[in-house]
Amino acid sequence: MEFTKGHGTGNDFVILPDPDGALDLTPELVAAICDRRRGLGGDGVLRVVRAAKHTDGAALAGEAEWFMDYWNSDGSFAEMCGNGARVFVRYLLANGLVVPSGEALPVATRAGVVRARVEGDAIAVEMQRPRLYGASAAALGGLTLPGTAVDVGNPHLVCSVPAGLDLAGLDLTRAPDIDPAVFPAGVNVEFTTAGAPVSGVDAHVLMRVHERGSAETLSCGTGACAVAAVALRDADQETGTVAVDVPGGRLTVTVTPDSCWLSGPALLVATGELTLPPLT
């Protein structure tokens, strides 16, 4: 099968062009493609399919031509992926599947239609405004960290790392323990600490993330939006702009009264043909 490899701040994806929905994509195939030793490797798969040709996108075909069929690296579905949406749009532009018009480009996702715009070398996507809806906690080894539950079209738990504990030293090789009653479908867990002041933004936050279905990743776009919303709340602000530094680089999140814009680099790094052995 043909593929393109892309990433947004190190959050990497295998992009599969399948405009007419002919590819028989299965959880086992996705996991094999994303295997970093036996496959191509990636945090997830982005299938590029016309909304009208996909069961989950057909209802949105009147609003957006293209549907982002996103799968986690373990073969599970995700409702939304902020970095994936930005890389998806970069692919559409690079391959002439959409024509830049100066207006925001619509993309259908399982979380609804998102809009994207080109900002120089960066791509920004507009998503739903993060909704802070409760408190919970994550247990990491012998450490329990309280956090805020946030809905960004997918579930997040944002946990602030207390003073004296090194964010970089957290062991995220295993999934944090969370309350399944609060997060029955699992959750992305973000660990944060305040960064040094940055000019032009209202807050600066450092973040690491353990994503459901993908383990620790170098970046999570929806996670950055969740983190920004919590940072603004803690600063007694309902709107504003937050710089979020992840291991893979910097994302900029602007929370407005009605939505949330995620901006950062989105790069395509390779194209080719991928051949996998028969799945057993």
Strand proportion, as a percent range, falls in 35-45%
Task: Return the CATH topology of the largest domain.
Answer: Diaminopimelate Epimerase, Chain A, domain 1
CATH class of the largest domain: Alpha Beta
**Cα end-to-end separation:** 19 Å
Mean pLDDT: 95
Whole-number tally of structural domains: 2
Q: Which radius of gyration do the C-alpha atoms yield?
A: 18 Å
Structural class: mainly beta
Largest sheet features: 12 strands, mixed
Q: How many distinct beta strands?
A: 17
The fourth-level CATH homologous superfamily of the largest domain is Diaminopimelate Epimerase, Chain A, domain 1
The CATH architecture assignment of the largest domain turns out to be Roll
> Strand-and-helix sequence, N→C?
EEHEEHEEEEEEEEEHEEEE
Molecular shape: globular
Low-confidence stretches: none
Question: Mind explaining what this structure looks like?
Answer:
The chain has helices at 27-34, 82-94, 221-234; strands spanning 2-8, 11-17, 44-50, 66-72, 105-109, 112-119, 122-128, 131-140, 143-151, 155-160, 188-194, 203-211, 215-217, 240-246, 249-255, 259-265, 267-273. With 280 residues, the protein is mainly beta. The chain folds into two domains: 2-126 and 266-273, Diaminopimelate Epimerase, Chain A, domain 1 (Roll); 131-257, Diaminopimelate Epimerase, Chain A, domain 1 (Roll). Strand 14 (240-246) and strand 15 form a beta hairpin. 44% of the residues are buried.
